[in-house]
Amino acid sequence: MSKLPSSPIYSSDVYLMACKQFDRAADAINLPETIRDRTKHPRRAVVLSLPIQRDDGTVQVFEGYRVQHNLSNGPAKGGVRFHPEVSLGEVAALAMWMSWKTALVGLPYGGAKGGVIVDPSRLSERELERLARRYMQELVPFVGPHVDVPAPDVGTNERMMGWMVDTWSNHRGRLEPAAVTGKPLALGGSQGRREATGAGVAYLVSRYLEDLGVPPSEATVAIQGFGNVGGEAARALARRGAKIVAISDHTGGYFNARGIDVEKALACVATTRDLRAFDGGDALSNEQLLTLECTVLIPAALERVITPEIAPRLRCRLLAEAANGPTTFAADRWLEENRPDLEIIPDVLCNAGGVIVSYFEWIQNLENYYWTRDEVLEKLFLQLERAREAVERQRSRYKFTRRLAAQTLGIQRVADAKMARGLYP
């Protein structure tokens, strides 16, 4: 069995969690020892020093990262996270999950992730632009349309992707929209990209509710993390008839048994960047939201929020992991042993809508031919349905949990590509 890495480079709880998931999946499919470490460990990591001039004239140096986990299946693909708790280990874990995710949903990509240790709310827009541009400037030798294609993640957005693609293009002397995805439409962004991850979550939730025999109109939904993903998932599920009874962000949450006014909450976030000014429900904490009685619980914020302490208190029928790694390894094992009635849509499937539509954006940029929003969403749901069916077949064939089925499919496909290419030199 492949051992956890002894190197302290990626040391973090979330990276060790990803490694434990890999080891369990590799054991389940008897992955040969000769390919395990090559499939498990990141291919490349870049640590960046990012000095920018603040508006008051002082110079501040930020630290950033880019980890390329796998390049065997195609260009690396993954978002860029701006958050005060970013670490190299976290970025490496996210890159690993991206490798499994892109392989699971059938994209010709490897996995990557990036991040900068910063609270973007404490920077002015001019400072944020300088930091985004400096990040991309330092990465120019390591990224590009056929090498590694960044995208938005927590703390970043389409405007910042526009600054990044402009920076990369200026260094290359030509506009190259395929170098970054999640861009504004004016720079080659795709219709449907902004809502892609949330729309994908809503689609999969609806499909699994159908399997449970629960009409969306009878479902209650609680969403932890009301950013782009959580907000768009709420909007899409509300349009399908579901009642959104609780939402939260880093400032706290709100509960309304009659249903949250989703559009009002989205307008509040658009104006003030958070939910502090929202008055459409009774206040509750993020932990209280996770343990509410509801049909569907959607953790859509950061990793490791469903811990061994929270897991026994879950009162949902369906757990839809819109965030990456929201359930710890120990909590997942507890749920597997004690809550067979709880259906889980694992993160590598549940939140794959964003990278799927990023792939569509990349194709459209390379071909200079663009699709309508309806065409994009139709293709998205078809791709998700194919992946869902593959996971269910794997689950049925080997009697795996849905998470193990999804992870083994993704890991096996990455390993197959590495074995097919061989070892160079």
Please tell me about this protein's structure:
It is globular, with a radius of gyration of 20 Å. Helix 7 links the parallel strand 6 and strand 7 (about 245-250). About 45% of the residues lie in helices and about 15% in strands. It is an alpha/beta fold and about 425 residues long. The chain starts with 12 loop residues before the first helix and ends with a helix.
- Biggest sheet details: 7 strands, mixed
Question: Which second-level CATH architecture of the domain at 196-345 applies?
Answer: 3-Layer(aba) Sandwich
| CATH topology name of the domain at 196-345 | Rossmann fold
| Structural class category | alpha/beta
Query: How would you sum up the global shape?
Result: globular
In whole angstroms, the N-to-C terminal distance is 26 Å
Short description:
Helix content is about 45%, strand content about 15%. It has about 425 residues and is an alpha/beta fold.
Topology:
Layout lengths: L12 H16 L4 H8 L3 E10 L5 E10 L7 E8 L4 H17 L5 E8 L7 H15 L8 E5 L5 H15 L23 H17 L7 E5 L3 H12 L3 E7 L2 E4 L6 H11 L9 E3 L1 H5 L5 E4 L18 E3 L8 H10 L4 E3 L1 H4 L2 H15 L5 H26 L3 H20 L4
Parallel strand pairs: 3-4, 3-5, 6-7, 6-10, 10-11, 11-12
Antiparallel strand pairs: 1-2, 2-4, 7-8, 8-9
Helix pairs in contact: 1-3, 1-14, 2-14, 3-14, 4-5, 6-7, 6-12, 6-13, 7-8, 12-13, 13-14
